[in-house]
Design brief:
single chain, alpha/beta, Rossmann fold, 2 domains, seven-stranded mixed sheet, binds adenosine-5'-triphosphate, binds iron/sulfur cluster, binds magnesium ion
Length: about 375
């Protein structure tokens, strides 16, 4: 019945408009959101890519569980580092946060409102506030566009942020903010170094004056000497523009200097999350302990006493993850229970009662047991 449909659509449009206005108002309230409050709450987030067989008649034969139940908060004004080995789902999480991928399940709450299923105007209002900086500054910038057009491109979608007449000036300001000469506005990406290109990527990320920046391995493709400069720039921009960062990296040493809190991912899940001190000084998850044992220690005395945990075996395929705890096939503490029951991400009871730095979220049945099998006894 067409009459009904039309009525439904109009009602939906009205509802969407109402939601858009509400979100817009909240987004504009921006800096009034108190420091430390969760600006993003991610709950049970999943992304399963269907696996199909056959060319013509595609049959569904399973799924790649790229992200398989991720929980974390991003607090206003903080930097949350997310680390984990290649393929554990970091980029997929990043893409869902900025709406480049649609979650299979779960919620992404921005200032209390689930944005994962938004569309239309409401989505547009939110997207403006959550921007992404990509890993590879060599491929993420269109080689045929000038730097001015690259940085100013978001204004085509959001002309309200910078009306046509003011765009050039705005882009030049952005170049200046990221430490590039504003006169470079007509140059092309190939005329810049890797570090400079990443600055261009950051300027584009800032163009719409977002509140949240999701940076997916923003320095991994850069020389070590340039990495520090780009990290310092991000640090400085954070306080200048009151930004909250999700900062993704391969290893724990890169995020250490910039993160307030760190989440460790393994095979589509967050296995441990806590403050800088909690994760680096008092890790309770066997996987985090293994990652940290591989980080070089400058102090020779500490090096002597420290145990090295070498992770054996490869990361299992996300199309067929181990039952129970995903880490169990590589864990030296694994027992029968680990194959049957998936551990919850929560503060282990004993540590919770004790208080202290070990009292933070860890997804391990035996997190409380410190015992680590010495390397010569391991199979
Ligand atoms: N579009 C897709 N279709 C099917 N599988 C995908 C797709 N995108 C990612 N995957 C798979 O999902 C898993 C997680 O990928 P993702 O890129 O999120 O990992 P990552 O942690 O960012 O890895 P890296 O450190 O290498 O960047 C991988 O096994 C990957 O092959
Ligand atoms: S739950 Fe079991 S397999 Fe998983 S990390 Fe803890 S001890 Fe290891
Ligand atoms: Mg990635």
């Amino acid at each position: 019945m067409p009459h009904h449909d039309e009525h439904g659509t109009r009602k939906e449009a009205r509802e969407e408009g109402r939601q858009a206005r509400k979100l817009l108002a909240r987004a504009q309230a921006g800096s009034s959101y108190a420091a430390g409050e969760p600006i993003l709450e991610v709950r049970g987030l999943k992304k399963h890519y269907p696996l199909t067989q056959g060319v013509v008649l595609k049959r569904h034969v399973g799924a790649v569980k790229a992200v398989d139940g991720v929980d974390f908060d991003l607090r206003q004004g903080e930097t949350l580092g997310i680390v984990g080995e290649s393929g554990c789902g970091k980029s997929t999480v990043a893409k869902m946060l900025v709406h480049l991928e649609e979650p299979t399940a779960g919620a992404i709450r921005y200032k209390g409102e689930d944005i994962s299923k938004l569309s239309g105007r409401a989505l547009k209002a939110v997207r403006r506030n959550i921007q992404m900086v990509f890993q590879d500054p060599y491929t993420s910038l269109n080689p045929r566009m000038t730097v001015g057009d690259i940085i100013g491109e978001p204004y085509e979608i959001h002309p309200e942020v910078a009306p046509k007449g003011s765009r050039r000036q705005r882009v030049q300001e952005l170049l200046d903010v990221v430490g590039l000469n504003p006169e470079y506005i007509n140059r092309y990406p190939h005329q810049f170094s890797g570090g400079q290109r990443q600055r261009i990527g950051i300027a584009r990320g800032l163009a719409l004056r977002p509140e949240i920046i999701v940076a997916d391995e923003p320095v991994s493709a850069l020389d070590v000497s340039v990495q520090a400069q780009v990290i310092n720039l991000l640090d400085q921009l954070q306080s200048e523009f009151n930004l909250s960062y999700v900062f993704i990296a391969h290893d724990l040493s890169i995020v250490r200097h910039i993160s307030n809190r760190v989440g460790v991912m393994y095979l589509g899940r967050v296995v441990e999350i806590g403050s800088d001190e909690q994760i680096y000084e008092h890790p309770t998850h066997p996987y985090t302990q293994a990652l940290l044992s591989a980080v070089p220690v400058p102090n020779p005395a500490a090096r002597e006493t420290r145990e090295r945990i070498i992770l054996v075996g490869d990361v299992p395929s996300p199309a067929n993850p181990p039952s129970g705890c995903h880490f169990r096939t590589r864990c030296w503490k694994a027992r029968d229970k680990c194959a049957v029951e998936a551990p919850e991400l929560a503060v282990p009871a004993w540590f919770a009662a004790e208080g202290g730095p070990a009292a933070h979220d860890s997804a391990c049945h035996f997190a409380e047991e410190k015992q680590i099998v010495p390397s010569d006894e391991r199979p």
